[in-house]
Specification:
binds flavin mononucleotide, four-stranded parallel sheet, 140 residues, 4 strands, alpha/beta
Length: 140
């Protein structure tokens, strides 16, 4: 389905794993954040790690430079702690709504960080991400 796009900002690879699981489950590949949002993308999955309470810089730029009018967006994040992810998902959601997006839902899970969250995202986190993606498509 060419009207679905998945983009991720992942410094350490944790959020990339979630993006790959979502994309594979939907039969698409993860797009390049340095490129423009494809004109035909109607449902867009955007994910980021949490860095100092913020999304990655490339994701912030991607959102602030994109035209999201008429697009449905689902957000995902990995983080050291749940509060960090909630904050970043909120930040991304507010910025996207200002750019015209409709937010369909969010997903977050833990991502390994220093000595914490070892093994995350793990198989269960990735399965939950695939379920999330299917639920989003069902509402899109
Ligand atoms: C520089 C840096 C800053 C971070 N800041 C936070 C933070 O503020 N809150 C939090 O919950 N996790 C924080 N983390 C943990 C990451 O969000 C977590 O490891 C996430 O899975 C990283 O995703 P990535 O591997 O896709 O880059 C930070 C990690 C790094 C490397």
């Amino acid at each position: 389905m060419t009207d679905i796009a998945v983009f991720v900002d992942s410094r350490g690879g944790n959020t990339r794993k979630v993006a790959d699981a979502i994309a594979a489950g939907l039969n698409v590949t993860v797009g390049d954040l340095s490129a423009a949002l494809p004109a035909g993308a109607k449902v867009v999955f955007l994910g980021s790690g949490v860095y100092g309470g913020k999304p990655g810089d490339a994701m912030t730029k991607f959102i602030s430079s994109g035209d999201f009018r008429g697009r449905k967006v689902a957000l995902f994040a990995t983080s050291g702690g749940a509060e960090g992810a909630k904050k970043v998902l909120e930040t991304m959601g507010v910025a996207l709504k200002e750019r015209g997006a409709v937010i369909l839902g969010t997903y977050h899970c833990r991502g390994k960080f220093l000595f914490t969250n070892r093994g995350h995202p793990g198989p269960e986190d990735l399965e939950n991400a695939r379920i999330f993606a299917r639920e989003i498509l069902a509402k899109s």
